[in-house]
Specification:
Layout lengths: L7 E6 L4 H9 L17 H16 L8 E4 L3 H14 L5 E3 L16 H7 L1 H10 L12 H15 L7 E6 L1 H12 L16 E6 L4 E8 L5
Helix pairs in contact: 2-3, 4-5, 6-7
Length: 222
């Protein structure tokens, strides 16, 4: 990164979605969710989480508060920012970038893990053996694929961010990919931790790289 890149990157996973809730309620029972990944909306809890995010952003000191926003095209991410922005009371330029979409699941789309094991037992076993970074569902993406497109996105921030703090509103897979790209971590094993709904992860620009400030923080939701 050069001096024109972001001075600080704040990455947020969207608030709780209706699909998150349906998957949690299904537990170990197979579930085929009724909407495509890009169509899923926030729950009432997800909207409250997004409002709490807006209050957190409003309370940040000058120099840490984001001055531009990049957002996933998926509805739940856009709703998260709209609610947070309204609660903050500040209008920022927002860029929707396709590279910030969630990991594409291909043949596994709309299926919870139990339904994947029921319908694609051989693929489920292959995923278990290969690990989530390397495994690519039929017609979908591996986490390594997500890292590659997020790396291209981060390269493009150099020259667009103009030395400002920026906010990225996206998905758990994108937050994990940002950690890989910004910290130079080459992950091949299990992800560091489940990235929680409406969690905040922050990196600040250092000498030629980014330094983690906090990861997967949900203190503002207490």
């Amino acid at each position: 990164m050069t001096g024109a890149g972001p001075s600080r990157v704040i990455a947020v996973r969207h608030g709780e979605s209706e699909a998150n809730l349906a998957h949690r309620e299904a537990g170990d029972r197979p579930l085929v969710y009724g909407l495509g990944d890009d169509e899923v909306r926030l729950t009432a809890l997800g909207r409250r989480q997004s409002a709490a995010l807006g209050r957190l952003l409003a309370a940040l000191p000058a120099g840490e508060r984001p001055e531009a926003v990049w957002c996933s095209p998926y509805l739940r991410a856009r709703e998260t920012w709209e609610i947070a922005g309204d609660g903050w009371g500040d209008t920022l330029p927002v860029t929707v970038d396709e590279r910030l979409r969630d990991q594409e699941q291909g043949a596994f789309d709309r299926l919870n893990p139990a339904a994947v094991r029921e319908r694609f037992p051989e693929e489920a076993a292959r995923r278990e053996a290969a690990g989530v970074y390397a495994f690519r569902p039929p017609g979908g993406e591996s986490l390594t694929d997500v890292v590659a497109r997020v790396r291209a996105f981060v390269r493009d921030l150099d020259g667009q961010a103009g030395g400002r703090p920026v906010l990225i509103v996206a998905h758990d897979s994108v937050v994990l990919a940002l950690r890989n790209v910004l910290e130079g971590v080459q992950s091949t094993g299990p992800p560091l931790a489940p990235v929680l709904n409406a969690s905040v992860s922050v990196w600040r620009a250092g000498e030629g790289s980014f330094e983690p400030v906090r990861f997967n923080d949900v203190g503002h939701l207490a």
